[in-house]
Write a structure and sequence with these properties.
The protein is α+β, with helices and mostly antiparallel strands and 129 residues long. It is built from six helices and five strands; from the N terminus they run E-E-H-H-H-E-H-H-E-E-H. A three-stranded antiparallel β-sheet has the order 3-5-4.
Length: 129
């Protein structure tokens, strides 16, 4: 270990260290950058809802979908689908565009598309078992 090691004798469990110690250099290096991730929790919170994740996934399969299509895919009301789509739009995940009497939604950028597809691929590997 490269930094000064801080150590303290403590109680143990099977999933923690037998001795409490930490590498001060590593902790300082990571602590200096840990706030860079702020805001990402909002993205994951938005996608943690089953309906919103399904909407995001549907929008990886189709470039754009109207509210009525989303409602039918989710087997829910247009009001419910619209609520979730609006939430995703407010979070900056989707964009909406009115075309005549219909409102179409799409993913804002490729990053969300990739994130959803990576998570989908990861889930198919059975990581949760």
């Amino acid at each position: 270990m490269t930094g000064k090691i801080k150590e303290k004798i403590g109680s143990t469990t099977k999933d923690s260290c037998e001795t409490y110690c930490y590498d001060e250099t590593v902790v300082n290096r990571v602590s200096d950058r840990i706030d860079e991730i702020s805001g990402v929790e909002l993205l994951f919170k938005a996608l943690a809802d089953s309906n919103r994740l399904k909407i995001a996934y549907a929008l990886t399969l189709e470039e754009k979908m109207c509210v009525c299509d989303v409602a039918n895919v989710l087997k829910t009301s247009t009001a419910n689908a619209s609520h979730h789509l609006r939430y995703l739009r407010d979070m900056g995940i989707t964009a909406s565009k009115k075309e005549g009497k219909l409102v179409f939604y799409s993913l804002v950028d490729e990053h969300v598309h990739q994130l959803v597809n990576i998570a989908h691929e990861h889930s198919k590997e059975g990581w949760y078992k």
